[in-house]
Design goal:
The structure is a single chain. This protein is an alpha/beta fold and 739 residues long. The chain folds into five domains: 172 residues, Rossmann fold (3-Layer(aba) Sandwich), CATH 3.40.50.300; 62 residues, no CATH class; 188 residues, no CATH class; 82 residues, no CATH class; 81 residues, no CATH class. 39% of the residues lie in helices and 20% in strands. The strands form eight sheets. The protein has an eight-stranded mixed sheet with strand order 4-3-5-2-6-7-1-8, sandwiched between helices. Strand 29 and strand 30 form a beta hairpin. The N and C termini lie far apart (97 Å).
Amino acid sequence: MVPLPIDLILPDIVAALRRGPCVVVRAPTGAGKTTRVPPALLDAGIAANRRILVLEPRRVAARAAARRMALERGGRLGDEVGYQVRFDRQYGPRTRILVITPGVLLRLLQDDPFLESAGVVVFDEFHERGLDSDLALGMVRLLQQTVRPDLRVVVMSATVAVEQLSAYLGDCPVASSEGRQYPVEVRYEPRPEHQSWPAAAALAAERLLDQTDGDLLVFLPGMQEIRQTARHLEDAAAKRKLAVLPLHGDLPAEQQDAALAPWDRRKIVLATKRGGNVDHGRRRRQRLGAVDAQGATELGRTLARLPVHPRLARLLVEGPRWGRPERAALTAALLAERDPFARDVALPFRVAAKHLGHGAVSDVLDRVEALEEFARTGRIDSPLGTLNRGAARFTLRARDQLLRSLRYEIRGSELSENRAADEAVLRPLLAAFPDRLARRREAGSRRGVMVGGRGVRLAPTSGVTESELFLCIDVDASRTETLVRQASAVQREWLPPERLTSAIEVAFDAATERVSARRRVRFEDLVLEEAHTALPDDAETAGVLTAAALKQLDRVLPPADSPAGLYRTRVRWLREWMPELELPPFDENDLRDLLSWLCVGRRSFADLRAADWLSALQGRLTHIQRQAVEREAPERLPVPSGSRITLRYEPGRAPVLAARIQEMFGLQDTPRVAGGRVRVVLHLLAPNHRPQQVTDDLASFWSNTYPQIRKELRGRYPKHAWPEDPWTAPAERRPRRKK
């Protein structure tokens, strides 16, 4: 195996766990702590005959860590080393190192309260703090101090304050590794003024591809930005034969593995930010009203004291506001506990029959009503299937407990029952799941788009088939299109006005190749309504058109044989041969600046193609440079016949002049350009305009080759002049008529 910095302190870690129950490992990223510490503990017998549980904060990391350890141990994933994450697991009875997420550990504790199957619990990347990881450490520490003094705990981190953590773990030892230092270059891109952040990220990635040889890893705030950036990179990926791969926790395992695996070509991996779970959790709490810029709100402190997830706590406290706290408590209990309804393949048909002729208002409300019926009558048969009697009773007990907690938190306030019963379920659901609001793509469709831009599809088990807006309550996000098993309708007037925004958005329509403007009303980033409107000021419109044109330069640049295209070629050619003129390269960067100017006042690619590109290119040169181009790289050259013949320029080569031999009589030597540094290549043509000689030495042609071809051609073309002395003979543009 490749030696890693952590290897030097593995004996210290093992020794610390032989002496005491805990150790903190501080090692920077790349030191090797994730893949080397658990196997070292296994080989040292620290876990005895039990498993080593390794907690990774993210599913992607859990799978990758398990795969790497199995590879380094020379085994197969799922044998000695395995993993278990949500919706995916690969381990067996012989597995000794099991990599899991904190949420999986909390579920294991429900089935195995004393963790009798584990001898060591390793908390990796503990600096990526989260509620689940903190709770898991607290519960494991409690076990260690009570019924499992033999349980060993290792907490590993790159940046966490180890002194406080060591104190929490009974002043345990701290093992530190210095790791390796690598040079890091930081570059700052200018803030994008006329393009979206995903578009700016894509452009930055394209520039880095030209400056580096390896793969690129791009961190983005969330899945929506990943999808948008991937779309912006489609053209570059096709041209450069790149693989553009998303990487986030909601992807199927095989797609996550593909992003991490080696490829036969360069790849760009678009990933959510490390530590994004903290940022996103804060954003979610902001949506719930639990935190603001100053920290926790009064509502947030109330939510924290309630014994349920913050979402469900928010739902619970909304109950008194809408007059039916018992219904809100039952709804929260129903969503917090396992589904009390037996699985039934006929459920889609039951739902359809229950709501024959009209869609359901809420799948959650249907379940609440069935549980209320059970509470009144004990009836376990319902339109949604058969209730599990034990699970139903447990849900009702949870409701009562939540209601008691709620009454304690709002003591002194009335829990009145004076509102519409259904709204006591539906409105609190909106308060608890604002980030799950979705809009149906079209009437009657089961497909929609949710806040964040993710596509959703209502499962056959959902009866919410008519409402334009609905909440996605019970979802399966493991597939490309999120499956919504339970939904709840939302009326537009229920949306808080302060959460709605109205703005004119300017965008490029690829189908029409035009910039258009639409006024959009949004809830968060979900478009609720939109309509065409007049384009705003020229600056914004020009910025959008510029960004679109830069991605498809071939659609807007003048053709190579147009006056502007030919002029650009001449300037670039002369720049090679006369660098002292300091001519612009007219490369992509120059064209980007040029486009920004040309796009002002224009609305479409057609407008750009019709623009005066020649004047724009000439405007980038000084007066002296323009004169030099016309003098040293002329578009045409005069020949003795009086014709002005076009020169053909190609990068790195001498220009070509094609003319009939008769037009060149009297010319003593080969013309030169670029200050006399470059001879023009002459294509000397017969009267049929086919080359008879290609040369950059006209004097040699007149002396040596012309006499030979004269004999042949004067017979084939008698109407044309074939003088014996081409040096002094008059040139002719067209053959003279014979008298």
